[in-house]
């Protein structure tokens, strides 16, 4: 079924809190965008198909469908269409949703390409993949599932043996620190996604690195030895959309539970006051912890189950779009 092109207008939204209120009832399906709006770091541009102040439709209740919100992370767009919240869509609803998604994304990229020669559209739910292919003549790739922990399921603290100037000593005789500039090359060399070095540098405050210490010392008592560990044994990063990625454990330190440990440590750090986003109200800081895992990555899927994460019942995809678009 096809429908005639629908008129779409996009409005800039500087205040994210009302948008979070609108998206919250649709968790976990709205999680990629919901978390994006809360992740600390560089400011992001956010637009919606309704004006600021019209989130409830003017009646104090939830806004009626269909509507769409999108966020521009610089190298990637994230969006949520209200029709995604439905478990089943009628033929008419699917056609209307596809038209809204395609028209809104095209309109935004025509007006705000910003001199970029390409951009990704990320975490696209499987119901919109054919729409993206039709409107942008590009085939989405990398079918992944979302593994997530909702805020009430996150353990805020982890057992530690002691703290040092260089980081926190964890069970197993490793020290957890933030990422450092000298870590960038190693993080890039172990990542399956070819991130630019400058991007990884901006995420170092939101990176957890496990480092080994001298086995001849007791790291819980010798702060000098623990303060300057050098060998990286595991690491992972919270990306700009709030997802945890680049997770890696050194081949010589596997089968010791370090993958689960570095992931749990990063999650605890994300929910600490130190990483509280500044652009949303404190009461709204409740985004879940989540990872994108390729459907065929058995080892990573097993790790997510080990730390107690839930798996989504839908897949998400990515698409690369060449810019500028032809009007």
Description:
- This protein has 327 residues and is α+β, with helices and mostly antiparallel strands.
- The protein has two domains: 11-145 and 315-322, 3-Layer(aba) Sandwich (Aminopeptidase), CATH 3.40.630; 155-270, Aminopeptidase (3-Layer(aba) Sandwich), CATH 3.40.630.30.
- 25% of the residues lie in helices and 26% in strands.
- The protein contains nine helices and 14 strands.
- It has helices spanning 17-23, 31-36, 91-111, 129-136, 184-189, 197-202, 223-227, 258-270, 298-306, and strands spanning 11-12, 45-48, 68-72, 76-81, 118-125, 141-149, 162-164, 167-170, 174-178, 207-212, 232-238, 244-249, 289-294, 310-322.
- The strands form two sheets. An eight-stranded mixed β-sheet has the order 1-2-3-4-5-14-6-13.
- Strand 3 (68-72) and strand 4 (76-81) form a beta hairpin.
- Helix 3 packs across helix 4.
- The radius of gyration is 21 Å and the shape is globular.
- It starts with 10 loop residues before the first strand and ends in a 5-residue tail after the last strand.
- 37% of the residues are buried.
- Residues 156-165 and 215-227 have low confidence and may be disordered.
- Residues 174-326 form the N-acetyltransferase domain.
- GO terms for molecular function: acyltransferase activity, transferring groups other than amino-acyl groups.
- This is BY PROTMAP: gi|472585138|gb|EMS22704.1| GCN5-related N-acetyltransferase (GNAT) [Rhodosporidium toruloides NP11] gi|647400097|emb|CDR45204.1| RHTO0S10e06744g1_1 [Rhodosporidium toruloides].
């Amino acid at each position: 079924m096809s429908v005639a092109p629908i008129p779409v207008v996009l409005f800039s939204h500087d205040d994210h809190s009302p948008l979070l209120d609108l998206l919250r009832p649709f968790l976990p399906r709205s999680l990629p965008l919901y978390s994006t709006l809360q992740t600390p770091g560089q400011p992001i541009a956010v637009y919606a198909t309704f004006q600021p102040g019209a989130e409830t439709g003017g009646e104090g209740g939830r806004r009626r469908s269909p509507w769409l919100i999108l966020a521009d992370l610089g190298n990637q767009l994230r969006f949520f269409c209200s029709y995604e919240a439905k478990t089943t869509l009628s033929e008419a609803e699917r056609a209307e949703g596809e038209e809204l998604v395609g028209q809104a994304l095209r309109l935004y990229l025509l007006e705000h390409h910003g001199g970029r020669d390409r951009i990704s559209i990320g975490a696209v739910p499987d119901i919109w993949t054919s729409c993206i292919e039709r409107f942008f003549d590009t085939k989405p790739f990398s079918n992944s599932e979302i593994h997530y922990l909702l805020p009430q399921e996150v353990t805020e603290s982890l057992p530690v043996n002691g703290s040092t100037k260089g980081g926190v000593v964890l069970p197993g005789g490793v020290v957890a620190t933030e990422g450092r500039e000298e870590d960038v090359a190693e993080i890039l060399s172990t990542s399956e996604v070819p991130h630019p070095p400058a991007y990884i540098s901006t995420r170092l405050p939101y990176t957890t690195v496990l480092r080994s210490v001298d086995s001849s010392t007791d790291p819980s008592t010798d702060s000098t030895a623990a303060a300057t560990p050098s060998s990286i044994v595991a690491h992972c990063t919270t990306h700009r959309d709030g997802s945890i990625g680049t997770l890696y454990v050194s081949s010589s330190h596997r089968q010791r539970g370090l993958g689960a440990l570095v992931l749990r440590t990063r999650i605890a750090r994300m929910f600490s006051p130190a990483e509280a986003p500044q652009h949303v109200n404190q009461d709204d800081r409740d985004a879940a912890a989540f990872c994108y895992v390729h459907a065929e990555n058995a080892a990573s899927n097993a790790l997510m189950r080990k730390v107690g994460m839930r798996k989504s019942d839908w897949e998400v995809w990515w698409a690369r779009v060449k810019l500028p678009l032809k009007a």
